[in-house]
Amino acid sequence: MRYVPLGNSGLTVSVLSFGTMTFGGTGWAADIGRTGVDDARRQLDICIEAGVNLIDTADIYSDGWSEEILGEAIEPRRNEVLIATKARFPMGEGPNDGGLSRHHLIRACEASLRRLRTDHIDLYQAHEWDGQTPIDETLAAFDHLVTQGKVRYIGLSNFTGWQFMKVMGRAQAFPNLTVASHQVYYSLQARESEYEIAPAAIDQGVGLMVWSPLAGGLLSGKFRRQQNLPEGARLTANWGDPPIFDEDRMFDMIEVLVEVAQSHSVSAAQVALAWLLTRPAVATVIIGARHEEQLRDNLAAVDLVLTPNDLARLDKASVPNLIYPYWHQAETANDRLSAADLSLLGPYIPWTGVRGPYADQDPAL
Q: Which of 106, 101, 88, 146 is nearest to 122 (CA)?
């Protein structure tokens, strides 16, 4: 396992972390997984033995059941891991049972602590933007929890670029707060995070935590064009998270993904995960599994080294189009770009000397 700082914080995390959305399995989460305490304990043992030190959950996962299962399963080894959880979504039917208000955040944190059987949360994350609560109120609630010792670091999840920067700007008024992370969806299937979110994270020194790195299983290699989908697969259940906007392009990319995997004699999932570990600003990639074999396969991605040619092929099949104003900046402002700018624009500006996604590609490809 490899370890990196989480953004500019002093917290060190494993580059692969473990997500517990499969724990429990009630309501909307039933199709994702139904892992009970015994299986959860076994999966956690496998992860810890592999060097994983960050476990991610959320209060909304199975209506709190995921946290309860994690709390019971991890209790004997609590000091060996960092626990990250999240709050924002409704946990009741009352008008104050959701959002990022001071009222809800403090109550949600205290409830998560009880379910997790712990006295502190290592990383407490705002699970989604709340446009109706003043950001200073949200940050003051986080500050209160940090001051009380109930929370060590804070993070964001699913914020846009401007929302993220608004938080970072106002967070300077709260010296006790360290915004260490931004948890976002990012995969070969959808690279929209590269437009604003990743450059902002680079600029602000915040580590990206990647959720659904296999695009809900789309990048496992099991889903191929013109092939029957496995019974119970998310696509067969009208799974729309993440959405698919260009099915043909996705299947083209999956073919490349499978070919690269075959060249290394590994699974397509390992290639998709290893690719993410090469991306700027990515601190940790959250993996999840319904069974032990899948978990061990995903964990092996940390040892896979993709060649420059592999990366070029994957980039060519998945690279996003430059939308405005990025194409304009690439053409007219390329003489004064920062590292954050170049994380997106570099591959499109050969005259900057930055090596693009096709620089090492075999001309025959």
A: 146
Instruction: Give the CATH number of the domain where residue 92 resides.
Output: 3.20.20.100
38 CB burial (10 A radius; 0-12, 13-18, 19+): exposed
Between strands 16-19 and 54-56, the pairing is parallel
Count of domains in the chain? 1
Tens-digit pLDDT profile for residues 185-237: 999 999 999 999 999 999 999 999 999 999 989 999 888 876 655 555 555 44
The parent domain of residue 169 ranges over 3-307
User: Considering the domain boundaries, does residue 117 fall inside one?
Assistant: yes
Q: Which of 61, 153, 348, 358 is catalytic?
A: 61
The answer to whether residue 42 sits within a structural domain is yes
Q: Per this entry, what is the length of the chain?
A: 365
Residue 186 among the catalytic residues: no
- Segment 28-55 mean pLDDT: 90
- Decide if 230 is inside a domain: yes
- What is the C-alpha separation between 53 and 23, in angstroms, rounded? 18
pTM of the predicted protein model: 0.92
The CA distance from 230 to 208, in Å, is: 32
Q: Would you say residue 84 lies in a domain?
A: yes
